[in-house]
Recover the amino acids of this structure.
């Protein structure tokens, strides 16, 4: 499928008006479709699969395989993705709370 990858700084600064306009949460990925920005990796995977059925990115709609595919995408995004974000960015408020047991443990690396 035709596409263009735009490189950007991994942590766009607050004063980067171009990226902030596309993704006010300052995170990646952002997908432009017809010039409109869309975010959330799970949603983007579903959009791509739906827009390009010929690529075979998802099982056929209405099948048990499709149900499991949807289930896993949401599970990974909501549970693993959010948890790893807390782990990678411990200075963020939510992460500080959920990682407190690690931060307070003097034996932790
Ligand atoms: N829920 C969002 C999470 C996006 C996210 O946290 N992206 C990370 C990289 S995987 C990021 O942009 N980190 C840079 C930052 O937060 O400054 C999604 O699934 O797209």
């Amino acid at each position: 499928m035709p596409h263009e990858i735009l490189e950007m700084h991994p942590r766009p600064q607050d004063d980067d008006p171009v990226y902030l306009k596309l993704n006010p949460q300052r995170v990646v990925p952002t997908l432009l479709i017809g010039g409109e920005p869309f975010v959330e990796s799970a949603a983007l995977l579903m959009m791509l699969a739906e827009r390009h059925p010929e690529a075979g990115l998802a099982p056929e709609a209405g099948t048990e395989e499709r149900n499991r595919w949807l289930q896993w995408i949401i599970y990974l995004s909501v549970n693993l993705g959010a948890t790893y974000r807390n782990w990678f960015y411990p200075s963020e408020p939510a992460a500080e709370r959920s990682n407190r047991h690690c931060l307070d443990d003097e034996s932790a690396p």
In short: The chain has a mean pLDDT of 85. DSSP finds five helices and two strands in the chain. The helical segments are 17-22, 41-51, 64-88, 93-98, 100-103. The longest strand covers residues 30-33.
